[in-house]
Amino acid sequence: MTATAQTSSSAPALEVSLRQPTVADGAAIWTLVRESGALEPNTCYAYLLLATHFAGTCVVAERDGELVGFVLGYRPPTRPEAVFVWQIGVRADARGAGLGKRLLHRLIELPDAADATFLEATVGTSNQASARLFLGFARERGVACERAPGFESADFGPLEHEPEPLYRIGPLRKQETT
Ligand SMILES: CC(C)(COP(=O)(O)OP(=O)(O)OC[C@H]1O[C@@H](n2cnc3c(N)ncnc32)[C@H](O)[C@@H]1OP(=O)(O)O)[C@@H](O)C(=O)NCCC(=O)NCCS
């Protein structure tokens, strides 16, 4: 599945294609995560699992044959009405041109997410770019973005970690995109 990403009126044009990942994308996603400067890297193996077992709820963005963005999601087994964004990242040189939001719009249009009524994610309290991304996505869908307790610092045990409140966006099918 491919599509040309659109950009906001104030952003420079960004020609990328969006598609679901394959096993060949796992290591490149892992590299993007490590280069992001903001995402917690998991193992390469974890990204291989996401790119294969969970490809139905993941999207990658490609420009000139290189991966420049991704969103990794899944349907939480205990809340199948939601699609949960585990990680989303855009390469530094492709940021600020609307690609993050385009990845989220494409994610909820995938067949495996098309019946989800909420998009959820946890957002670290200091991550302004991520908060703005999800708020902007909710605004473009014309739906609410509610914040609820997600993971508290104490949940991370000995790791020093800021709280990660849960952002719950929806109901998604209230208004279809054009
Ligand atoms: C978060 C991230 C994916 C956003 O990607 P992006 O392609 O730059 O996002 P967009 O261009 O679609 O912008 C979405 C909104 O966020 C805002 N935004 C983007 N970067 C921002 C920043 N650094 N500071 C404040 N706002 C920012 C945009 O202005 C836009 O707001 P609007 O809808 O009100 O116009 C990207 O910054 C990134 O990869 N960061 C590192 C990884 C990360 O933190 N991921 C999220 C946690 S899982």
UniProtKB/TrEMBL annotation:
<dbReference type="InterPro" id="IPR016181">
    <property type="entry name" value="Acyl_CoA_acyltransferase"/>
</dbReference>
<feature type="region of interest" description="Disordered">
    <location>
        <begin position="158"/>
        <end position="178"/>
    </location>
</feature>
<protein>
    <recommendedName>
        <fullName>L-2,4-diaminobutyric acid acetyltransferase</fullName>
        <ecNumber>2.3.1.178</ecNumber>
    </recommendedName>
</protein>
<dbReference type="Pfam" id="PF00583">
    <property type="entry name" value="Acetyltransf_1"/>
</dbReference>
<dbReference type="GO" id="GO:0033816">
    <property type="term" value="F:diaminobutyrate acetyltransferase activity"/>
</dbReference>
<comment type="similarity">
    <text>Belongs to the acetyltransferase family. EctA subfamily.</text>
</comment>
<keyword id="KW-0012">Acyltransferase</keyword>
<dbReference type="GO" id="GO:0019491">
    <property type="term" value="P:ectoine biosynthetic process"/>
</dbReference>
<dbReference type="InterPro" id="IPR000182">
    <property type="entry name" value="GNAT_dom"/>
</dbReference>
<comment type="pathway">
    <text>Amine and polyamine biosynthesis; ectoine biosynthesis; L-ectoine from L-aspartate 4-semialdehyde: step 2/3.</text>
</comment>
<feature type="domain" description="N-acetyltransferase">
    <location>
        <begin position="16"/>
        <end position="158"/>
    </location>
</feature>
<dbReference type="InterPro" id="IPR012772">
    <property type="entry name" value="Ectoine_EctA"/>
</dbReference>
<keyword id="KW-0808">Transferase</keyword>
